[in-house]
Structure formats: C-alpha cells, structure tokens
Amino acid sequence: MSRTSIKFEFPCQKSENVTSDLMIKLISTSVILALVFTVPALGIFLGIYSYTENVIMGAIIGFAIHFITLGFSYPISQSISSFLDN
C-alpha cells in the first residue's frame, strides 16, 4: 500500500503566510472553545442526573445549555482570539 501525504492548505491564504504562531493560536482557540461548549453542558447534565436520577430532564437541560453556548460562539471566539493576541 502506498502512503500519500496530505498537504494542509488554507483556501484564502498562501501557505507561506501560515506561521507557527498562527497555528498555535488556531489550535489554542479551538481547544478552549471545545471546552467552553462541552464542559458546562456535561456538568449540568451529570449534576441533574446524580441529584434527581432523571436522565431525560438532565439531557434536555444539558442540550439547552449546549445550544445556548453555541449561539454565543462568535463573540466567545472573538474574545478568546483577542485575549490570545495580547
């Protein structure tokens, strides 16, 4: 089997413009966003489930919190990006 290498390219930028600082900022912002979106929803789900032992109520409230935070994803992303610029 031949192994092909995949070249990572941005469609709007030339590959010469992609620096290691940009990649670190991109990965850091993505990891922080993933944590901001998942940890509160999972925490609320597990808290409700352990307190009331009701999976349905925990899932509904956890999904609601998850989608509320997804609604604010752009402002959260902008604030994280500006924080990492400093």
Write a structural description:
There is one protein chain. The relative contact order is 0.12. This protein is 73% helix and 0% strand. It has 86 residues and is mostly helical. The protein has one domain. The model has no long low-confidence stretch (mean pLDDT 85).
| Cα distance spanning the termini | 47 Å
| Helix fraction bin | over 70%
Domain count? 1
Radius of gyration: 19 Å
Low-confidence stretches at least 5 residues in length (pLDDT < 50)? none
Q: Using the alpha-carbon principal axes, give the shape.
A: elongated
Main β sheet profile:
none
State the total count of DSSP E strands. Answer: 0
The total count of helices amounts to 3
Order of helices and strands: HHH
Strand content: under 5%
Determine the structural class based on helices, strands and strand pairing. mainly alpha
Could you report the average pLDDT, rounded to the nearest whole number?
A: 85
